[in-house]
Design a protein that fits this description.
The protein has 10 helices and no strands. By secondary structure, it is mostly helical. The N and C termini lie far apart (39 Å).
Length: 198
């Protein structure tokens, strides 16, 4: 993997967010795109956790805080995964679509570059600017909408799924996102889930 390609891959991710089908096809066909996509999804979560740990290192809250730091950044990533699987399963099982899982996942991972907004939010929180933090957290959580739009476009333009069928598939995926977020939040964050997410 050549990290000098990062700016080029980042441009592809932004193009995918603007629903450019040619870039979706390019990413879908490239096996190396899976690694870049995982970097786009996991790197912001990891950097957020590190920033929060650094900012709270002298607070004495220790391991109590570590779980509260880890899961809020990873739950959306896991929920996006569940959303993607659900979208593909509904399209395939209900509408007999022929979908290449690898291609679909690669492009979906690139679309989640929008989750990097959370990095800016965390930086504001570390700097003590809490008002902007909450606005940016809301924007990053809504990043799943961008992924849904990309998946909708992919279903129609790359996999020839009819518009109404694609709508049902992505709405099902969106429902899976919220359900999985809720379950994981309650499971790993308990009573803090509502405070952190709603």
């Amino acid at each position: 993997m050549d990290f000098k390609k990062f700016p080029e891959e980042l441009k592809k991710a932004i193009s995918i967010l603007t629903l450019k089908v040619d870039k979706m096809k390019e990413v879908a066909a490239n096996k190396e795109s899976l690694i870049w996509g995982l970097i786009f999804v996991l790197a912001p979560a990891l950097v957020n956790i590190i920033l929060m740990r650094i900012s709270l290192s002298g607070s004495g809250l220790g391991s109590f805080v570590s779980g509260l730091l880890f899961w809020p950044f990873l739950i959306p990533v896991l929920a996006i995964g569940g959303m993607t699987v659900t979208t593909v399963l509904v399209a395939e099982k209900a509408y007999k679509a022929k979908i290449d899982y690898n291609s679909f996942v690669r492009v979906s991972l690139y679309a989640y570059i929008v989750g990097a907004i959370s990095l800016v939010a965390t930086l504001f929180l570390v700097l003590g600017i809490t008002g902007l933090y909450y606005i940016l957290v809301d924007l990053s959580v809504l990043g799943f909408l961008a992924v849904l739009l990309v998946q909708f476009k992919m279903l129609m333009d790359m996999f020839s799924v009819k518009k109404n069928d694609a709508i049902v598939a992505v709405v099902s995926g969106g429902a899976a996102y919220f359900l999985l977020s809720f379950i994981l939040g309650k499971l790993f964050l308990g009573m803090f889930y509502q405070f952190l997410y709603f």
